[in-house]
Every structure is written in structure tokens, then in C-alpha cells.
């Protein structure tokens, strides 16, 4: 007899840990958390590039029930996030439930349980939760000749220490990761060429150290930190609502954000030609904007060059564009993650009657009821599903999902049931409502997004990543969704 766990959680990042904490609270103690990497923390374990920091205010980037009074800065560096993840795992007894270095390759619903295949083993559980993240499959660009490059190549999501002293570096990509990394590379390398395909909206970063006496205050009076968190969440919510979700009604706020970023660029870069190249031609919010106080300024340094011609090929010693060839010693790939080909889902998931989640999403539409459950997939919670991401702090999404789980499992138990499955009707209505909101209100449909190359959009050209509602609405839905939206079976 193979051991049957109460639940298997795939992913030991903040999403998976939040789900495990909730399952334990619900009395499901026989849990197994499977993690591909060699330790916990997800994004904050994998990403170690210089300059890594959270790019929304730290007081909002933690579980509300586990505030961290120790953040050293308003935008804490990556290693503090990793330490916070370790602290949570220890306090909530999660580490003993985790198995590292285990890559799940498939999951199948069999009669009344899930069979999960990983590393030649099969694990069995009544419930399956996938928390594999959106940004977990690093993308290597498909540029001709890349394999022939003789120098060092490093992807930001697989960082290894590189000594850049006296070396010529090239970096491909100007997303949120590159914005943090480029100033650091410029400090170390003798020459740096930045290969940009699409510029990014960057606003000033109101970052500063949190003085020890404020941290002490947060430790002694958690209420004070809750007030700061509330303020931070309110500001983020206003930004998300005005810039993205209610673009139709609040277009002026979106324009103001663009102006704010342009003024920031203007203050740091005097050369109009360079400014033009660094200015996006798509609406603010179509793709993830970011904060930085030294990104634009870096391009004014004499040894830093911005290259905007497309990279045509890479040879053993450099990169070739229409503008010429650039010799480099080190190539940095800040080329992001593959969301829509190798993710959604991150491995094969087969539900009732052989229904294949990945195929179904691709042939129909990317969809999940409340961003979490899918008809035909009993006892399955897919945390990083279409329309799940709510607000700007990932913890908003995580805690909405924990609330949804609480309501769902409590209702299932009170009915003497052990199996839940969302109804087709509830799913269809949710999808229709989300699509209508995206189409009628958001920047994704009403703004100029065609040139943004945004990973928010899938192959069908639909922006199905973010939930197009306020976080208040998302919290309300998680706490009060009609229980008739689920079938409960024994
Ligand atoms: P990204 O936003 O997807 O950016 C990838 C960059 O690589 C883009 O500039 C893209 O250009 C470029 N690129 C990809 N393939 C290319 C090719 N073949 N030729 C030329 N350029 C190419 O990835 P990311 O910067 O890693 O950021 C991903 C997300 O991680 C962010 O949006 C953010 O949500 C998160 N993040 C968070 C933090 C934080 O909180 N601390 C920090 C960093 C990142 P195009 O735009 O033209 O495709």
C-alpha cells in the first residue's frame, strides 16, 4: 500500500507555503510539499542576481498574519525575503513536510485521489495544490548562434558569481529584473552594452532604510506596522485600479503615471535621442512597470551603451545587430520567463475522464473559477491560474486563495463530503464576467498595448493573467462565493 497523504502541494514558495499553512489550520496535517529547487522560498531562493530587491514596499509584501518588523529598507533586498520565507517555514512547521530537488512531471486524478509522478516515484493524495508560480520557467532567447558564444553566459534566474572586472558585458532584456541588475553590472564591468527590444516605464523608487527605532516600534506595537501596511496596500490598490483595472474611467491617472515616469527620465538623461530610445510607446500598465533611482542615469555613463537594433545573431565573441557587431566577454540574459508555453500548467495534469488541463486551456480559453479551480478537476486547487493575480502584492492573491480554501473545505466537511468540484456553470459565468471586465474597462483592451510585448497576454492575445477587479472585490468573492458553485461528493 502506498501512503496516501491528505494533500500534496507542489511548490515551496510563498504561495505553496500559504496553502500548506491553511491546510494545516483546516486539520489536514499529513501534507507533502514537493519542490523542484534545493530549498524553499521560490522566486526568492532562485533569484540571486546583484541588485535583487522586492519592487513593491516591504510592509505589504508578507503574510498579514505574520508581519515582519525586521525589514531593513522600504524595498527590502532579496536575501531578506529569503530569510522571511525560512522564518515562516520554521514557525509554521513546514520544513519537515518538504522534499527538495523533486521535479513533478505529471498528476492524474484516479477514482478518488491524485497520483503525482516525480523523480521516478508516485505520490498519492486526496487533494492536490499546485503553487508553481508564473515566473518559474526561465526563457532563453531563440537567437541564432547563441550556443556558439565562447564567453560566459548567465541567466538572471540561474545566477552564478561572475567577475566582471576589466570585462565587456552585454545584457539582453530591459524588464524589471534588468532594471535592477543593469546599474550593478555597470559598476563592475569595463564596458556594458544593453540590448533593448522594448523600453520599460520606470518611476522613481521611494526607497530608504527603515531606522532601527522604527523597527523596534514595529516589534513592540504590531498595530503601527499594520497601519503602514494598510497605507501601502491602499496606495498600491489605487495605482492598480486607476492604471490598469479601471483605465476606461480613470484614464487621466494612467496619463499622469506616464508623465511622472517621463519627468523622471528627463531629470536623469539630458540627451534627447537617448531619452527617446528609453521612452515606451505603449500605455503605462500594459506590461509590468517598475521603480528605480539609478536605471536611467546608468545609460549616461561613458562606458554604457544602449543598443536598440534587434539582435540578429550571436557568434563566438559577440552580438550582431543591424547597427554592427559588439564584442563582449560576458553575456547576461535578463530575458524573463516563459509563461504560456511551458507553464499553465507547469506539468501535465489529467483530471476526470482523462481531461488534460493544458490542452483544454489551449483549445478553449485560459480560465479557472476565481483563478483557482477548474471543472473536471476534482479536489484540485491550481493557485497560479488565469485571472488569479489580484492587486500588486503577491500576498494579496495568496491570502485570497487561502480564504477561498477555508470556505470551500469548511463547506465540504459540513456536508460530510471529501470531494469538491467546481460546476461548469459557475466557471463559465466567472469567465464571462472576467472577460467582459477586461474588454470593457482595462488598459489591456482600451490602452495602446500592441507594441508592449507584455507577458500578461497569452497566445490568443488575451490578458488572462491578472484579475480585472479591485482586491476588495477579490477578498469579498473569496469569503462569500456561493457554495452552490461547487458540487460536493462523498
Ligand atoms: P520580463 O519582464 O519578461 O523581461 C524580459 C526582457 O527580455 C524584456 O525586455 C524582453 O523584451 C527581453 N527579451 C526576451 N527575449 C528577447 C529576445 N529574443 N531579444 C531581445 N530581447 C528579449 O522578465 P523579467 O525582467 O525577469 O521580469 C519578470 C517579472 O518578474 C517582472 O515583471 C516582475 O513581475 C518580476 N520581478 C519582480 C521583481 C521584484 O519584485 N523584485 C524583480 C524583478 C522581476 P520584450 O519586452 O521586447 O519582450
Automatic annotation (TrEMBL):
Keywords: Monooxygenase, Oxidoreductase. Signal peptide: none annotated. GO terms for molecular function: monooxygenase activity. The lineage of its organism: Bacteria, Bacillati, Actinomycetota, Actinomycetes, Pseudonocardiales. This is Monooxygenase.
